[in-house]
Design a protein that fits this description.
- There is one protein chain.
- It contains ten helices and no strands.
- Helix 2 runs antiparallel to helix 9 and helix 6 packs antiparallel against helix 9.
Amino acid sequence: MPTVALFIFPFFMAFAASSDLLTMRISNKLVLLLVASFFVLAFILQMPLAEMGMHLACAAVVLLVGFTFFAFGWIGGGDAKLAAATTLWLGFGLALPFLIYAALLGGALTLLVLALRRYPLPSFLARLSWLDRLHDPKSGVPYGIALAIAGLLTYSSSYIFLGLTA
């Protein structure tokens, strides 16, 4: 069980990143599965209620800030929900490193996408709808990729990961 459980978070992060890249969407079902799996593993690992409450408070703060950013049009709604679900797994202790990684990776991703949009897409690549959409200057940037990588970079220090490897 612990070995399989170690890969739940990375699996959902990889799925979120690939989904955002290919469709520019992060499914609510995916976010709910990420949240539910946190609570299942926290229960199995007997995470103290106070600790669980702090993880939940961290996710609530990130969700509030994320939806504020969404209201201003700075990020997508799926990105806001994914960031909150990710910080649920990480808690306050890892939220700052996660958010710094996400900001740096997201900035680099944005610069890369903007640079690539300056050049015409070869016709054989334009046939791929996801790549054509990514190349369109009117579309956004799949920030879920940066969030997923940032989550993976901090996951190995999380309560769940450490509890499963103890």
